[in-house]
Structures are given as structure tokens and as C-alpha cells.
């Protein structure tokens, strides 16, 4: 497929010259399948091209960092990032399993939804691999810096798989998780003085933005199909951005005790180091994601709540 298919899903198969265009996220996946006749093999090709185009080396980026130049703040941020990234593998494992189960559930009932689910499960292998880079780079840096090691029992605890939820809700939650991660890494990059460390944080933040884009595309595909309701995306967004919601992370007055899985931002340990949490930036990105997923514009926490209430018929 070429870029035409992304903007014009009616582009003919013969017109497609897959290697002639810049790889990109297929953000009109429902139309690409229904109107463009796009197959899962073609979608996998696009995913592979983008993944390959974005590869980077953990070994190389670590070697560009001057460990002696890192501040106490850098060290704390690296240590927390390593812990946080440990929880991404169970997230990706869960999406792979859930997407395949949902694909089979929809087969025969709505084959386009089944294909979107399979495309999502297929992409999760790239997501998992990219998150592996993040986890290993920060934990290895922590180790080089002599920061407290992660005991195996804790490593295993962080691998606990999240409980299952409806697929649009799951994808929206993942959109928000990627936004939070991307903004946090952006803050870390801004505060880092060492050019090597700054480049690493920027690279990871760019990966998280790309992941956000994929989750938005799959979520939009489900809403476009008519099989999933926009209200579910708004319900999850509201849960995060409401006053005292999960977006406020570790700074909330009250944090729920969970024994099902580890929610990494409940566990951040900052000591005397403060990192701005850039709540407004996160909110703006969440509003924009909601618009891209559902087509509905919102620009404040109140509007998210009102829209959610309207959609559920309150
Ligand atoms: Fe990550
Ligand atoms: Fe990510």
C-alpha cells in the first residue's frame, strides 16, 4: 500500500508501491480494510517497515552516556523508569492474548472487527520488543550507576498481568499510559544535562508517542466499525483525568491497594528529587486522542465528564 491508501482507501491495489513511501501508522484501518481491501499481510508489512525504520541500539545509546556527569535527579529518574518499564511486558502479553481471543469471537459476526483485532495482536509483538529496549536500557544504566538492584521476587511481582477488560477500554487505557510515559520522558530529557542521556530519554519518548499512535488507530478502528461505543473511551479517560484520578499518580491523596498487578506510577519513589508532572500537557494529549478515536472534541476535564454523561444517557 502507499500513502494514498491511508488518505484514500479506494486506491487500487495495482497503484500500491509499498517500499516507495515513508512507513507510517495506518490510522484509517477500518476504511483501509472495508474500502481499500487491505489484507492482514499488507498491514503486517506496514508494521514491519515502521518498526525497522525506528530501531535503535541499547548498547550504543548507553555507551554515549557520561555516567560521571549524571545528577542525583537523573539517577532517580533512570531508576524509576527501569521499574516502570518492567510492567510493560505483561501489558503487551495481555494485549496479544486478548486481541486474539476477541478476533476469534468476532469472526463470522463482523470480519472487519476480527481483522482489526488480529492486526492489533500482530502489532503487539513489535510493541513488546520496543518496550524491552526501554526496560533493559534503564535497568542496565541503574546497575552501571550502582543504584539499588531489583530483587528477583520484585521483578516477578512487576510481571503480573493486568486483569482483562473490554477491548476499547483497554486500548484507551493504553493510549493514556503511553501519553503519561511520553510526557514523563520528555520531562526527564529536558532536565538531563548530559547529551547522551538526553538523547536516550528523547528516543524513548518518541517510541511512546508512536505506541500511542498505534493504540489510537486500533481504538478508532473499533469505534468506526460501530461495534464499540465512544462512551467506553470517555469512561476510561474520565477515570484518569478526574480530580484525584490516576493521572495524578503518586501525588494523589489516596492510592488504591491492588494485589492483582503493579501500577507503576503508584510506586514512583522520588526522595528529595522533584520532576514536574506536566498534567496540562498530558490532559491536552488525552483530549486530542479522544478526538482522534471518537471524532468528539473536548478541551477540558469538565467537557470530558459532560460528554461521558451524555453518551451514557445520564
Ligand atoms: Fe516504554
Ligand atoms: Fe510504550
3D structure, described in words:
It is a single chain. Helix 9 packs antiparallel against helix 10 and helix 10 runs parallel beside helix 12. The protein folds into two domains: 53 residues, no CATH class; 240 residues, Ferritin (Up-down Bundle), CATH 1.20.1260. The chain is globular and about 60 Å long. The chain has 314 residues and is mainly α. It has 13 helices and no strands. Bound molecules: fe (ii) ion (FE2) (2 copies).
What portion of residues belong to β-strands? under 5%
Helix content: 55-70%
Number of helices: 13
State the shape: globular
Element string (H = helix, E = strand) = HHHHHHHHHHHHH
Small molecules (ligands, ions, cofactors) in the structure? fe (ii) ion
**What value does the Rg take, in angstroms?**
20 Å
Provide a compact summary of the structure:
The chain has 314 residues and is mainly α.
Q: Which secondary structure elements does this structure contain, and how are they paired or packed?
A:
Layout: H1 3-7, H2 29-34, H3 40-53, H4 58-63, H5 72-85, H6 88-106, H7 111-144, H8 152-158, H9 167-191, H10 195-225, H11 230-241, H12 279-294, H13 301-312
Residues 85, 88, 131, 134, 181, 208 line the site of one fe (ii) ion.
Descriptive key words:
314 residues, binds fe (ii) ion, mainly alpha, globular, Ferritin
Amino acid at each position: 500500500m502507499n500513502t494514498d491508501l491511508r488518505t484514500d482507501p479506494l486506491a487500487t491495489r495495482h497503484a500500491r508501491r509499498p517500499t516507495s513511501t515513508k512507513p507510517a501508522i495506518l490510522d484509517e484501518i477500518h476504511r483501509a480494510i472495508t474500502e481499500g481491501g487491505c489484507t492482514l499481510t499488507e498491514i503486517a508489512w506496514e508494521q514491519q517497515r515502521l518498526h525497522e525504520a525506528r530501531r535503535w541500539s541499547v548498547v550504543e545509546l548507553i555507551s554515549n552516556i557520561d555516567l560521571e556527569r549524571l545528577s542525583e535527579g537523573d539517577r532517580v529518574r533512570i531508576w524509576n523508569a527501569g521499574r516502570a518499564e518492567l510492567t510493560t511486558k505483561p501489558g503487551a502479553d495481555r494485549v496479544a492474548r486478548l486481541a486474539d481471543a476477541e478476533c476469534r469471537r468476532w469472526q463470522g459476526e463482523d470480519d472487519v472487527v476480527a481483522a482489526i483485532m488480529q492486526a492489533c495482536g500482530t502489532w503487539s509483538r513489535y510493541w513488546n520488543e520496543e518496550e524491552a529496549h526501554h526496560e533493559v536500557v534503564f535497568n542496565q544504566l541503574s546497575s552501571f550507576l550502582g543504584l539499588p538492584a531489583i530483587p528477583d521476587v520484585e521483578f516477578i511481582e512487576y510481571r503480573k498481568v493486568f486483569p482483562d477488560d473490554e477491548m476499547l477500554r483497554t486500548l484507551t487505557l493504553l493510549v493514556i499510559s503511553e501519553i503519561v510515559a511520553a510526557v514523563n520522558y520528555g520531562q526527564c530529557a529536558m532536565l538531563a544535562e548530559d547529551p547522551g542521556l538526553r538523547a536516550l530519554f528523547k528516543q524513548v519518548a518518541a517510541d511512546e508517542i508512536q505506541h500511542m499512535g498505534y493504540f489510537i488507530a486500533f481504538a478508532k478502528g473499533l469505534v468506526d466499525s460501530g461495534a464499540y461505543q465512544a462512551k467506553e473511551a470517555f469512561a476510561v479517560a474520565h477515570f484518569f483525568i478526574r480530580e484525584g484520578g490516576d493521572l495524578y499518580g503518586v501525588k494523589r491523596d489516596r492510592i488504591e491497594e491492588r494485589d492483582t498487578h503493579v501500577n507503576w506510577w503508584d510506586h514512583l519513589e522520588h526522595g528529595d528529587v522533584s520532576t514536574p508532572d506536566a498534567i496540562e500537557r498530558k490532559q491536552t494529549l488525552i483530549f486530542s486522542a479522544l478526538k482522534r478515536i471518537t471524532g468528539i472534541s473536548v478541551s477540558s476535564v469538565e467537557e470530558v465528564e459532560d460528554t461521558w454523561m451524555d453518551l451514557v444517557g445520564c
